[in-house]
Amino acid sequence: MAEKTYLQAISDALRGEMRRDKRVFLLGEDVGVYGGAFKVTLGFQEEFGPWRVLDTPLSETAILAGATGAALMGMRPVAEMQFSDFVSCGWDHLTTVAAKQHFRAGTPIPIVVRLPSGGGFSGGPFHSQNPESSFAHIPGLKIVCPATPSDAKGLLLSAIEDPNPVLFFEHKHLYRRIKGEVPDERYTVPFGEARIHRAGDDVTVVTWGAMVYTAGEAAETLAADGVSVEIVDLRTLIPWDKEAVLASVAKCSKVLVLHEDTRTGGFGAEIAATIAEEAFESLDAPVKRIGAPDTPVPFSPPLEKAFIPQVADVVAALRELAEY
Amino acid sequence: MATGTLVEVVMPQMGVSVSEGTVTKWLKQAGEAITRDEPLLEISTDKVDTEVPSPGEGVLAQILVAEGETVEVGTVLAVIAPVGAEVAAPAAPTTPAEPEPIAAAPEPPPAPAPAPQPAPAVAASGNGKAFVSPVVARIAAEHGIDPAHVPGTGRGGRVTKKDILAFVEAGASTKAMAAPAAPVDVAPTSAQVPAAPVQAGEAGAGEALEPITAMRRGVMEHMRRSLDTSAHVMTVFEVDLTRVVDIRARLKPEYERAYGVNLTYLAFIARATVEAIKNWPWVNGEIRGDKIVTKQFVNLGIAVALEGGKGLIVPVLKNAETLNLLGIAKGIADLATRARTKKLTPDDVQGGSFTITNPGGWGAIMGTPVINQPQVAILDVEALVKRPVVVTDEHGRDSIAIRSMMNLCLSYDHRLVDGAYAAQFMKELRESLETWDETRY
After folding, report:
1. Cβ neighbour number for residue B206 with a 10 Å cutoff
2. Residue in chain B nearest A282 by alpha carbon
3. B346-375 pLDDT, tens digit each
4. Residue B300 contacts residue B352 (beta carbons within 8 Å)
5. Does A282 contact B134 at a Cβ distance shorter than 8 Å?
6. Would the CB atoms of B134 and A281 count as touching at under 8 Å?
7. Which has fewest Cβ within 10 Å: A138, A174, A240, B363?
8. Residues A134 and A201 in one domain
9. Mean of the pLDDT values across residues B119-138?
């Protein structure tokens, strides 16, 4: 067991898997010589050679189409989108080919697409988005959004093992900020099992990714008010752990769904709707949602702060629920 | 809405469970000057009658709720404008007040009212006291609690899940404490039964627990509400059914053969009851609000007990006044069968105007049935027994004979039906049965 950053956990997990399984290879923009825009794959090309750590042209279409083809031929490609925002260029190959291949032809597409996502450092509209809900709407894709270093490792290994296309959203703001104990041995974290980040019994927060920490800070403030907040970290959105959410709602009866993605059509809407459908008789307050406003992510630091849900926003919403 | 300087007078909350009040008298008329705390109007709630002092000073600009009207707590009753102020457009008379500070509950005068403690002002809008969340509704139903009786700590006095759970817990422990403990003093004067305190919802030694079914809960609620609603009075008539016994004995095989119907005594009694109701319509009536309702039809409820004490259901024979003896016999048989096989539709159990219950089949000779609300009377049919009775022949000579006798007990709501009226109805019913002609159908 060693303390690692979120980034280090991902990097080490990838390296370990490439050492273990020769089918695993990387492709993406600047993943080789440069070691990746965020240095996740620093030193990989030296260790594994240029044919297992492929620097590709600036074409997400080529990266995802190439990964899909390689997967069809039995490889286990791990493709990197330099920023998750750029994945839209490869939308067709991901959603039309990779997501549907198993249903059309019965052939597995075991690809992993790593998507550095999220804002918080003035990256502006092209380098800060959280596009997970767009893909959550496409049957055939799995969506992973780890919040901790140990989950990042365990979920990445599950993603590589999974026979389906998996979108692995790595939150950039967690890369070097978040540290945690990561077991040295190889282990996987199963998809569809939420993690209780903090146990409580007055209000439930359902969230994932970087917002887990925003919720955690808010929960500290609420604890000082005497309100006990439970934080459910979904860890994976497709599949998502409905049972864990409904169990927490049954206990607390008040729930806040929180995400960094924009509000309308965000995955929080799906969770809120499910709670309304299946836990109506457990509710003691309307289901509350916090997401970013329905605009592109602004460059300006003060505007970006206003855009991304902050601890104070979550505190206010939790107080409102507690007092309801 | 008040526009800054206008002051709204709202129906105050006169106790936790009071949700509405009636304006009984305006002490000021529109246009009259009024000072702060001067008595403005008198109101009446189901808990207390009191004066409402003026919450502001100026001119009574508008009266929005007339004398005699009943409105929800928080409803704007009047608007007071400071002298010389423009009067804003009138609010809709029943619009609940916004929670403005000015709408704080006025202090009732200390005398002569019995010093009610007004609850903090609660606006009827938004998520006030009246809103019951799904989880609170479920817990309330599970424990048979009226959420209106639970003190609320949520927004606007709303009852939260925590409030009702605390209420349930407090209730359970209160009951537990109320159970008499083993007496220290073993003197025989102690009438109390020694019992270890048992928590509500827990079984003591030798006891078993089972959940309350929805039907049982419905019966519980309905019976309690009926006793709380009606002024129950009962009258008993002894009826000589010897003629009916003879006629039934002759008709029964024929009905069985020709129509496949079991002709019961209940059918005769139902038929005679429907006929007697024609002359005594109030026993088939209803008290609806401040009106008495009489009906040209008799929708006859027949209480059917389900096996094993599983519950009681009262299917309704619609328009029994249009049915002859055969029709009534068939109708009752059909309803009873469908009740016991759970084939009744919701329509089958609604709209009754009079009910007959029939525990006599098990040998009961007297009962005090509870009225099936919102009806005002219920007839209890008792066991048919042979008794020696004094009979008088056409020459006025008395003799003792063995006759088939039955008691008919009528529970009625004395709010509507007086004793003489009920007795006359029963007398007609008795005579109708005692003189049953075999050509009658």
Report:
1. 5
2. B135
3. 788 889 999 999 888 888 899 999 999 999
4. yes
5. yes
6. yes
7. B363
8. no
9. 64
